[in-house]
Structures are given as structure tokens and as C-alpha cells.
Design a protein that fits this description.
8 helices, alpha/beta, globular, 8-stranded mixed beta sheet, TIM Barrel, binds iron/sulfur cluster, 337 residues, 3-stranded antiparallel beta sheet, 2 domains, 22% strand, 25% helix
Length: 337
């Protein structure tokens, strides 16, 4: 307990129970027990984070890999993740860490100060909180982000959006960009496949946009589970009506993983059809990912149609933007410098 970080956003109840108010599960946790995410534990009536400053995954990734296509393209992000998650997606690609208890995997100690120094040392202009679910290491993200901001390093989260509004708004003061994984557009999928529910995720998307955080959305399409054109159309309409047409949307391919091993990978054609639906709905920046794609992973000017950024997987092979503008004068949506 001596080295553990006390959690934010929880309340003490009778008989040494506590209630965690970080995410919509609002776990009530008895003494000696943990919340649903396995990363927050009640010790003698206080809630502690078991993963503060304890990353188990560290890498320097292209920012495009997160994916962020319209946020500081061509830069590297110092990327970290820990154990635990508040969702339990049956198709999780990082399930060995996201579904693990902190003590079951190897982690290292990296204080916020050390993390920011490491990012600086490696010339990374951003720190990405990613791999498992940054909500689970909320306090660590917050402390790192405060320090990084002071040093001019950007903070980006790759997040499931299943968080309560108050902690999210606190994050928004320090987070520069968020990629929210909108896993489907039905509560049925969320309940059956992820163990969560959709409403708080949609609320988070609206809040991030309102608070001025640069936002991109990823929708991983799984054949038969969330690939119906009507569902995709409904999702695109919701995006258009609630956060506008300039938020980048990434349709990405599923590959069999964790508990879903009997469904084949998403055909590229399914992703192209989804893109075509989104384009028709008027979304301006729609991408296809996790499959070889040429023009579907490039950025084009919404006004004149000219190529702005050409990508080859996670590399920028051509950047025609000048101070964030197309030759035609259109100011492309994004954070470019
Ligand atoms: S963050 Fe963890 S402990 Fe807190 S409510 Fe969510 S699942 Fe429960």
C-alpha cells in the first residue's frame, strides 16, 4: 500500500466498502477486493490503483499506427500501456495484458517524470496512452499528461470512451487528441461482445468534441456481428448530427483473436462498402485500415479533391499541405504542426 497511488473519483461507503466513480460500472468494492477492471483495489477502505507508473508495454510508434491520420502526421508517439481493462471484448487484440491482473504480467516502474524524460530523449513529440485502456491507469495518465504539457509534448489517448463525464472533463484539460473506438452501433453488440453498453461511449465522443480535443473515431468491423449496412449508416448519421462531418472515421479490419476464432477476417470489400456509406452520408475524412489500401488510406481535400497526404501503411510518403492548407486554399481539418 505504501507505494500505491490512491485513486481519484471514488467514495467511501459503510463498513470499509468503496464505490468507484471513474467509469459507468460504478463498482462497489469490498475491503480486499478489486473492481471489474482488476486494476483498482480496496485496501482498508481506500481505493488504490495497482497500475500507477507500472507500464507493461512500451514502444515508439508512428502516430499513424494509433491510428491518428490528421494529428501531427509523420511524428512518433512514445506509447505505453498497463494491465487491465473495463471492457472485455471477445475479439481483443491485446487481451494478454488487457484481461490480465497486474501481478500476472511483467511490468516496470516508470514515474511520470521518467516517462516524460524518456519521450524527450527519444525525440517523441507525443505520448500515447494506449494498448490496454488508459481509463484504467487514469491517475498515471493525468500526472504524465500534466508534466508532458509543460514540456510541450502532446498527449494522446486511444480509448474505449467508457468513462464518466467528470473524470473525462478533467482529462480534457491536458489531452490533445483522442481516438475513440466505437465498437459498433448497437447496445446488443456492446452487451454481448464487450460486456459494456453504448450510451456512455457516445456521451464521451460528444464531450471530447465539445472540449476541443482533436478527435478521430475507429470502427472495427467484424463479419456478421457489426457489419450490417443499416447499422453503419445509422452510426455515420449519428456522427454527422452530433460531432459534424470533419471528424476522421477509420473502418478497420478484424482478425480472429482471443475468444472469436471462428469468424474469418473482414474482407476488404466490406470496409470499402462501409467507406462508401460514410462518404454518401457526407463524412469528409473516411479511411480504411488494417488491410492493404492505397487511396482509401490517403487524405484528400474535401473542397477540390486533390491529394493532401499519401500514406503507405504507417508511413507518410507525400505531404502536400502547406501550413495546413491545400493548394486551393482550403484549411484542412486537423492539427498539422
Ligand atoms: S474503473 Fe474499474 S473499478 Fe472503477 S468502476 Fe470502472 S471497472 Fe469498476
Amino acid at each position: 500500500m505504501k507505494d500505491l497511488k490512491e485513486c481519484l473519483f471514488y467514495e467511501k461507503l459503510e463498513e470499509n466498502n468503496v464505490k468507484c466513480n471513474l467509469c459507468p460500472r460504478h463498482c462497489i468494492i469490498a475491503e480486499g477486493k478489486r473492481g471489474n477492471c482488476k486494476a483498482r483495489e480496496n485496501q482498508k477502505g481506500k481505493l488504490y490503483s495497482l497500475v500507477y507508473a507500472k507500464p507493461c508495454a512500451i514502444a515508439i510508434d508512428p502516430i499513424e499506427k494509433k491510428p491518428f491520420y490528421q494529428f501531427m502526421p509523420g511524428n512518433s508517439a512514445y506509447s505505453i500501456g498497463t494491465a487491465g481493462c473495463n471492457l472485455h471484448c471477445q475479439f481483443c487484440q491485446n487481451w494478454t495484458t488487457s484481461q490480465a491482473r497486474p501481478e500476472d504480467i511483467t511490468s516496470m516502474t516508470l514515474t511520470p517524470k521518467q516517462l516524460v524524460e524518456e519521450a524527450e530523449f527519444h525525440g517523441c513529440r507525443a505520448i500515447a496512452y494506449t494498448y490496454n485502456e488508459p481509463i484504467i491507469f487514469y491517475e498515471y495518465v493525468l500526472d504524465c499528461a500534466k508534466l508532458a504539457k509543460k514540456k510541450g509534448i502532446k498527449n494522446i489517448i486511444v480509448c474505449n470512451g467508457f468513462i464518466n463525464q467528470e473524470p473525462l472533463k478533467e482529462w480534457c484539460k491536458y489531452i490533445d487528441a483522442a481516438n475513440i473506438d466505437l465498437k459498433a452501433f448497437t447496445d446488443k453488440f456492446y452487451k454481448q461482445i464487450t460486456g459494456a453498453w453504448i450510451k456512455p461511449v457516445l456521451e464521451s465522443i460528444k464531450t471530447l468534441k465539445k472540449q476541443g480535443v482533436w478527435l478521430e473515431i475507429t470502427n472495427l468491423i467484424i463479419p456478421t456481428l457489426n457489419d450490417k449496412p443499416a447499422e453503419i449508416k445509422k452510426m455515420c448519421k449519428w456522427i454527422k448530427e452530433n460531432i459534424g462531418t470533419t471528424t476522421p472515421l477509420h473502418f478497420t479490419a478484424f482478425y480472429p483473436c482471443y475468444k472469436i476464432l471462428d469468424i474469418p477476417p473482414t474482407p476488404k470489400d466490406t470496409l470499402l462498402k462501409a467507406k462508401s456509406i460514410a462518404d454518401k452520408e457526407g463524412l469528409k475524412y473516411v479511411y480504411v485500415g488494417n488491410v492493404p489500401a492505397e487511396k482509401e488510406s490517403n487524405t484528400y481535400c474535401p473542397k477540390c479533391g486533390k491529394l493532401l497526404i499519401r500514406r503507405g501503411w504507417f508511413n507518410i510518403t507525400q505531404n502536400n499541405l502547406r501550413k495546413g492548407k491545400c493548394n486551393c486554399g482550403y484549411k484542412a481539418d486537423g492539427i498539422w504542426e
